[in-house]
Structure formats: structure tokens, C-alpha cells
Amino acid sequence: MDVELVDVTLTHPNGQRAVDRLSLAIRGGERVAIIGPSGAGKTSILRLIGTAIRPTAGTLRLDDADPWHMPRAALRRLRSRIGTIHQAPPLPPRQRLVTTVLAGRLGQWPLWRALASLVYPLDIAGAEAALARMDLADRLFDRCDRLSGGQLQRVGVARTLYQAPDLMLADEPVSALDPQLAAHVVGELNRDAQARGATLIASLHAVDLALGGFPRVIGIRAGGMAFDRPPAGITDEMLTELYASESPRPPTQDDQPLELPEPRPRAARQPLCR
Q1: 3-class DSSP state for residue 168?
Q2: pLDDT for 78-96, tens place per residue?
């Protein structure tokens, strides 16, 4: 999916400007990382692209169409082609992982199938395969409230991989993971996007993951563009300037505050009646 922002501004009701006349173009199939200090506007940019919020000024185009001038039915179809991975996925705590992952395709299925899948999982093998890519296949029938924050992040990634959208938006998808797991998840997202020709835009706090995992990196500061280059064209001086207001050096995945969950009882795997 092609993405274009032309002089896009987002101003919150309190007057704070989160995005300031930002223009950028991302071709279908590109894989792009967005980096910048906390509060720079990275999440707001992803929400604008995902049509979760409407720009205050400027134009957003997805596949050369302005989503805010589409009929409602067309906008629903467009949104079904977009998959968003949240830093803290909004997953129902008592829902089993198999149902949570299958929910990734609810917007693509006819109403009868979507409702049926909420009652009885219709593609258990598909959900298990998606979870296996996140090393969570053995938790298929566990409830979400039995998982740690890092595991829930990986479930959110698995749900989007199962959805197989044309545009994947990942907002700090590995903030609760150790460096090895984080690299694995970022690698899976890139491999999936490349294999399907999907567009991947990921907001990352860890600069090392962005430079090592994406062919294009956009630096954001105060809601505007600081740079837009391939990793080889980004210097240490540019990164130091980008993060000057936050820390003396650019953050890496080793700096992330990792959650150390207490062991939780695992639900017995009980195959559902077929």
C-alpha cells in the first residue's frame, strides 16, 4: 500500500502540536523505521496513517486516495487492509490466544464467519502457525491474562501476521523484549512484509534495531522530519543531535526496561471438539 502525507499537521484539543507540516512518501512494499525521542510524534504519525485520527491540516493519501473523503463502506474496506501492532496490545484478558489471533481477520471475513469464530475457532492451525513464529505455539489455548507483557506483545504481532494486511503499522512492538527476542520479532516482521510485498512502518525506540533491520530510517523531532535516509547515510552526529533533548547517546534495545514476569500456571492444552 502506498502512503503519502502532504503538509500534515496534527494539533490536539489542548493546543499541543504533535505533528508539524510533515510530508513524506512511502511506496508499496517499502520497509521503514521511524525513530526519535519520546514525545517526538512517532505514535501520532502512525495513528494518522492508520486512519485512527484525522489530520488537523494537510492531506493523507493511501493508495492515492484520501481516506477521509471515502464513503463509509470504502473506508471500512481500506481499514481491513491495515494491521496495527500496539506497544500494549488491547487484548481481552480472559480470551484464549487462539481466538485473539484469529480476530486479526474479523474485518476481512463475512459477518457469519466472524461471529462463528468468536464462539468456536475456525482456523486453529492458522492461529498456531502464527504463534509459532513468535515462539508461543505451546500457549495456543492459554488465556491472555496468563501471559507477561512481553508475551502479550508477541501475541499482538502474531495476530497481525495472521491478518496479512497490505500495510503493517508497528508502534514500539518490542519495547518489553530482550535484545535477542526483539531482533527475532523485527526480523519476522521484515521477512513477512518482504515475502508478501506489504508495506511495513515501525516506530522504534531502539536505534540499533532500526539501523540493523530496515533499509530506510526516518528521524522525527518535534513532530517534523529531521532526516530520511538509508542506514548507511546516518551518522553518529545526526543521531546525537536527534536525541539531544533526551539522553547523551542514542538508545538501544539493551536500554529497554525489561519485565521479569512471575511464573504463572499454564492452562492444560485441551483440543476443542471438532
Answers
A1: strand
A2: 999 999 999 998 899 999 9
Q: Is the pTM of this model over 0.90?
A: no
Residue at grid coordinates 490536539: 12
CB-count exposure of residue 100 (10 Å: 0-12, 13-18, 19+): buried
| DSSP at 65 | B
Q: Which amino acid is at 111?
A: L
> Can you list the domains of the chain with their CATH numbers?
1-81+167-177+196-256 (3.40.50.300), 88-164 (no CATH)
Q: What are the residues facing 26 on neighbouring strands?
A: 3
CA 238, CA 91: separation in Å to the nearest integer?
Answer: 38
The 10s digit of each residue's pLDDT in 175-211 is 989 999 999 999 999 999 999 999 999 999 999 999 9
Residue 33 contacts residue 158 (beta carbons within 8 Å) = no
| Cell triple for 82 | 491495515
Cell of 94: 480472559
